[in-house]
Amino acid sequence: MPDHDLPGRSRPVGFGNRFLLYLELVRMEFVNNLAYRSSYFTGIFNYTIQIGAYFFLWDAIYSGRRAIGGLNKEEMITYVIVAWVARSFYFSNLDRRVAVEIRDGKIALELIRPYSYQMVKYARASGEAFFRILFFAVPAGTAIYFIRPFGLPPDWQAGLLFLLAVTGGFVINSQISMIAGFCAFFTQSTSGIFRAKRVIMDLFSGLLLPISFYPGWARDIIKLFPFQTVSYMPNLIYLGKITGGAVLHVILLQLFWVAFLGLVSVLFWRFAVKHVVIQGG
Amino acid sequence: MALIEARGLTKEFRIFRRREGVMGAFRDLFQRDYTTLRAVDGIDFVVAEGEMVGYIGANGAGKSTTIKMLTGILVPTAGSVNVNGFIPYKEREKYTRGIGVVFGQRSQLWWDIAVIESFKLLRRIYNVSQEEFKARLKKFDDILEFGSFLHLPVRKLSLGQRMRCDLTAALLHNPAILFLDEPTIGLDVLGKAKIREFLKEINSESKTTVILTTHDLGDIEALCPRVAIIDKGKMLYDGSVDNLYAQWGHDKMEDIVKKIYEGCKPEQYCMIENWGDTHA
Amino acid sequence: MSKQSGFRQDAANHIIIFFHYMAQYIKTKMAYRADFFIYVFSDLLQQSVNLVFILVIFTKVPAIKGWTRDQILFIYGFFLIPFGLYSGFLNHLFDVPEKYVLEGELDRVLLRPLNAWFQVVVETMNPELLIGTLTGIVIMVYSGNAMGLVPTWWDFPLTLVLVFGATMIYAGVYTFLASLGFWTEGNMGLMPMVYNLSNYGRYPMTIYRGPVRFILTWVLPFAFAGFYPAAILMHRYEYIGYALLTPVIGILSFVFAYRFWVAGIRRYRGTGS
């Protein structure tokens, strides 16, 4: 019998096995989410109400006007709906979960396990995202389409590129959440930080207002941050306002931010782990 | 009149059973599967003033449910209950002034504030006069020795320290009855000894009636002349500890209780049973 | 002793205890001062989202369905006053289904000789969020000034009555939702939904279609927590009938919800279901 098959002794983990572990976590999180029966119905309503609020508002704002900030009324309404439906996919509680594990000292346990803490969290977030696509985004989008038809992408390429860009948005949003969660190493209650994060995301990702509405100086500042690649840019791809080479530019920009934020969170993690070891959890 | 008098006390719960797996979760969305559980099944329980009664039973036997009915949290499905001159569930706000309760598994103190602040808040809630409050704190501190951590928030306390504070909190308003649900759970030998000593003192000095549930038979041996044993909601034994030993012969209490949980009867009963079902 | 004076003493007792809880709350918060100020600051930041939204929109358009920037700001300012009171004291009725019912914290509450609803409120309050009320007053004064509004003497007592009514609407709606937790045994996720809907109240009802306006007026009456009272305070008297209904609706919804709460407690303790 080969040595590494002895019971109770774990084998050195290869990349393939590691990947299977993460895949299993994705599946597990998906099933976990299914268990929360109540959120099925209410989650969709919730988003419908949010979208409804902005629908009425934009409808009133556009009354008697053709185009504001480069978008006409129909485009604006499509923008709002797509932005919120996409958010129902990329949103996650990653920040809160990480913070709770840090506060309860569970993070010390995670350090003795043979996997990457961050990858486990991303895997679970992905599982949740799959759940959200199937049970929030698609049904909510469909329901809203029946209530109030909105514009579809100009062609299938735009639709596909939009999905790609939203996936990029998901990764970037998760990374930002992870970094926000790590703040729990340094402050007792993180609710303030999470709220601040939410405000920044709402305003600077383009969820509430297309970035083109802001005055020039504000746009120049927003350009320096990754936020607008989460919502604003994917939405413009959907609307066919960003096409051709410019799409490639968006994807590259996202890749840049993924790499940058990945580096930041790894460094942050290393620093924080030292902090945990010193503090003893 | 007895201080606690419960007759035919019964409590039923309706339990929602989750189905397994993905498909099960889907089905739960539309149709729920309920079962009825009789947690406490027609028990009689009478306690006189100043008694100290141990209430034991396996996990899920119905101990906590009984305590919750006696303390007025839960309303019985059937049966009557009268404690300290009140029907506990009817005049909750008045009734709870006269009792103290400690749940070993869950602190009653405020998590984030210093222990002494919790005590002061409780003083207000129960309208205890400043002199009484000070005198009682002093008296309790003599045995429980919480002086050194009185100014720490509860979340920073060890389990033993927390339990000592919880006990104090439950007794600040000098209740007639003290209910303890597993007060020594998870404590070390010294911690247990300290709590037992304290309970004895309280019982003999203030004539406080004590009802305690526990899994540690050492608590019973050290404290309770009387023991009640419950299993699957039914009262299996209620009487003096001495009598328990006498019935079962000279045995260790642990063995006796084990046998009772397993459904055995004392030898003399078994013999009678062999002759036919003539005894009541 | 008569029942009347017993009740009065009981109420006085609850008020005294309220202040003791408040003192404890401040003490704990002061132990983590930095976190506390971040939290308060982030609340201000959150309010600023709506402000930014309004201000940015009005750089692009002069009016929304006839409502000017200052009028929209004025409504938003009024909206924030009862909203701050709600956030400070009633927001965490949110916790009832999970924390109190499912995890059994309510046992502890029921063991104390105080009203259960009162205990939940004082245990979970975040009075620092009253800062929203302050922000609201500032916005109201600023925008009222900007549109040249001259307040009459009765505007001030009227404001108090309207704020009281609007706060009672929040108390009613959220007490009702919290009480649902006694039946659902867990969080239904209704609260965020209603919370989002309550935000509809901060814009003029004229931007909504008929059914939505109906719901906001007669079903989940958040129109009374923002637009209707604000309209009368900026002397737009076409909504006076609605505005004066505010305290009535508030009291009615709270009384109804509180009865529902009592029924929920009864269910929790296992009497009838």
Describe this structure in words.
The complex is a heterotrimer of chains A (281), B (280) and C (273). Helix content of chain A is 72%, strand content 1%. Chain A has 281 residues and is mainly alpha-helical. Chain A has one domain. In chain A, strands 1-2 form a two-stranded antiparallel ribbon. The N terminus of chain A is likely disordered. Chain B is an alpha/beta fold and 280 residues long. In chain B, the strands form two sheets. Chain B has a six-stranded mixed sheet, with helices on both faces. In chain C, helix 3 packs across helix 8 and helix 3 packs across helix 11. Chain C is mainly α. In chain C, a hairpin with a 2-residue loop joins strand 1 and strand 2. Chains A and B meet through helix 1 of A and helix 1 of B.
Question: How would the blueprint of this fold be written?
Answer:
The complex is a heterotrimer of chains A (281), B (280) and C (273).
Chain A: H1 15-35, H2 38-61, E1 67-68, E2 71-72, H3 73-90, H4 94-103, H5 106-111, H6 117-147, H7 156-182, H8 191-204, H9 216-222, H10 232-239, H11 245-279
Antiparallel strand pairs in A: 1-2
Helix pairs in contact in A: 1-6, 2-3, 2-6, 3-6, 3-10, 4-7, 6-7, 7-10, 7-11
Chain B: E1 4-17, H1 21-30, E2 33-47, E3 52-56, H2 63-70, E4 78-83, H3 92-95, E5 99-103, H4 115-125, H5 130-144, H6 159-171, E6 177-181, H7 189-205, E7 209-213, H8 217-223, E8 226-231, E9 234-240, H9 241-248, H10 253-261, H11 267-275
Parallel strand pairs in B: 3-7, 3-8, 5-6, 6-7
Antiparallel strand pairs in B: 1-2, 1-4, 8-9
Chain C: H1 3-31, H2 33-60, E1 63-64, E2 67-68, H3 69-89, H4 96-102, H5 105-110, H6 116-124, H7 131-146, H8 155-184, H9 190-198, H10 210-219, H11 227-233, H12 240-268
- Counting H and I runs of at least 4 residues, what is the number of helices of chain A? 11
Order of helices and strands of chain A: HHEEHHHHHHHHH
The greatest interface here is: A-C, 37 and 39 residues
Overall geometry of chain A: globular
- Give the total of domains of chain A: 1
Q: Supply the helix-strand structural class of chain A.
A: mainly alpha
Overall average pLDDT of chain C? 90
Mean pLDDT rating of chain A: 85
Strand order of the largest sheet of chain C: 1-2
Q: Which geometry of chain C do the CA atoms define?
A: globular
Computed Rg of chain C: 20 Å
Quaternary? heterotrimer
In total, the number of strands of chain C is 2
The major sheet of chain C is characterized as:
2 strands, antiparallel
